[in-house]
């Protein structure tokens, strides 16, 4: 009991004085908390902030999200990556409107059954928005707890997440579960940091942390190495005709499904290959210029891209692409970050 008071009391005290001022902490609106948690799943806080504000302005309620046009949603999400997160948000919003009268359910299992909401997110929304007594164990929390308890289980395993979730529940204060979970996340994000040396002299748990006391900080947490990413080479064509540019809509399955891209081929092409490609597309007389190289890292794949800029006198039609105005790339068509390097030079 003594230890229970110490751990949660000292953590909450630290949190009260050190928590960051973040847009989704302004109030307890479950919709805002849900959107923020989904955005924060794979993306850093600083990167999320402007997206969050823009999203809330564009789609202030669950009803707006449930009926948003898919292209507009993709445009709002453009640059955040993992676009299925946005599609799942819309699907879940429809369920919330149809089955729960437009209110996020204050129930862990019901939250968990919504599209795109896993154990962590159900725990975060449940505790922060509704003060439910449930754990919310993300990568930040796993790192903190592995160090606190000197636990060398593999934190990438679901079993470890569940075990740590059960164990931390013993310390969750009845009156502030949401703050307790957020404090754990905050400690992991700002003190027990993911990259580089943790700031142990600022930690409220420095006197009880096993890794700190036993000099195990560099060994913990344990993560099994992931498989190396597959490398895919691409040649990206910037076909332009005055103010127009050719773009192609990706298929509705797989990576970046349904988003727009510059026409491209899944291979590195030399000058001869490019000439052949141009002949096949009836543009053998056009001028070409190298348009730089780009690299984009996804979770399991890396794209290594080389751009070719082709200036045409007439916008040659093809079933592989459509012509749009370059400025429409700004606010109409969602072009993923992978292609940003090429868009910039247009
Ligand atoms: N990362 C995930 N959830 C968060 C939250 N609510 N506040 C800050 N960072 C987070």
Ligand inventory: adenine
Reported for the largest beta sheet, the result is: 7 strands, mixed
Helix proportion of residues, in percent?
Answer: 40-55%
Can you tell me the overall shape? elongated
- Total count of helical runs of at least 4 residues: 15
Number of strands: 7
Low-confidence stretches: 1-5
Beta percentage is 5-15%
What is the mean predicted local confidence, pLDDT? 95
Fill in the keyword field for this structure:
alpha+beta; 346 residues; 15 helices; elongated; seven-stranded mixed sheet
Report on the architecture of this protein.
- The structure is a single chain.
- Helix 2 runs antiparallel to helix 8 and helix 9 packs across helix 11.
- With 346 residues, this protein is of the alpha+beta class.
- Helices cover 43% and strands 14% of the residues.
- A hairpin with a 3-residue loop joins strand 5 and strand 6.
- The chain starts with a helix and ends with a helix.
- Strands 1, 2, 3, 4, 5, 6 and 7 form a seven-stranded mixed β-sheet that branches.
- It binds adenine (ADE).
Q: How are the SSEs ordered, and which strands pair?
A:
Elements: H1 2-18, H2 30-40, H3 45-58, H4 62-66, H5 70-77, H6 84-100, H7 108-112, H8 119-130, H9 139-149, H10 158-169, H11 177-190, H12 210-213, E1 230-241, E2 244-249, E3 260-261, E4 264-265, H13 271-280, E5 287-297, E6 301-311, E7 322-325, H14 328-331, H15 340-344
Helix pairs in contact: 1-11, 2-3, 2-8, 8-11, 9-11
The structure holds adenine.
Residues 22, 37, 40, 45, 124, 138, 182, 185, 189 line the site of adenine (ADE).
């Amino acid at each position: 009991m003594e230890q229970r008071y110490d751990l949660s009391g000292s953590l909450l005290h630290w949190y009260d004085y050190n928590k960051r001022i973040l847009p989704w902490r302004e109030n307890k609106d479950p919709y805002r908390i849900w959107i923020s948690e989904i955005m924060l799943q794979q993306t850093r806080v600083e990167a999320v902030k402007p997206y969050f504000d823009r999203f809330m302005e564009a789609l202030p309620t669950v009803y707006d999200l449930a009926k948003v046009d898919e292209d507009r949603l993709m445009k709002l999400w453009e640059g955040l990556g993992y676009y299925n997160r946005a599609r799942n948000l819309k699907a879940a919003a429809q369920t919330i409107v149809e089955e729960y009268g437009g209110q996020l359910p204050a129930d862990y299992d019901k939250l968990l059954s919504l599209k795109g909401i896993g154990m962590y997110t159900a725990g975060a929304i449940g505790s922060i928005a509704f003060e439910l007594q449930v754990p919310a164990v993300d990568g930040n929390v796993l790192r903190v707890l592995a160090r606190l308890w000197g636990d060398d289980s593999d934190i990438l395993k679901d079993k470890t997440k569940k075990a740590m979730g059960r164990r931390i529940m013993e310390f969750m204060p009845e009156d502030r579960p949401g703050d307790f979970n957020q404090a754990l996340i905050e400690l992991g994000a700002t003190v027990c940091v993911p990259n580089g040396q943790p700031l142990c002299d600022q930690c409220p748990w420095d006197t009880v942390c096993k890794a700190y006391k036993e000099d195990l900080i560099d060994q913990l947490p344990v993560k099994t190495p992931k498989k190396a990413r597959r490398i895919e080479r691409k040649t990206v064509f910037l076909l332009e005709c005055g103010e127009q540019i050719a773009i192609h809509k990706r298929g509705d399955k797989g990576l970046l499904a349904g988003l727009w891209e510059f026409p491209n081929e899944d291979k590195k092409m030399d000058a001869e290959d490019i000439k052949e490609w141009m002949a096949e597309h009836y543009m053998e007389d056009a001028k070409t210029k190298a348009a730089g190289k780009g690299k984009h890292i996804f979770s399991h794949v890396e794209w290594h891209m080389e751009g070719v800029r082709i200036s045409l006198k007439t916008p040659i039609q093809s079933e592989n692409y459509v012509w749009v105005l370059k400025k429409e790339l700004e606010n109409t068509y969602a072009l993923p970050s992978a292609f940003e390097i090429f868009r910039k030079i247009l």
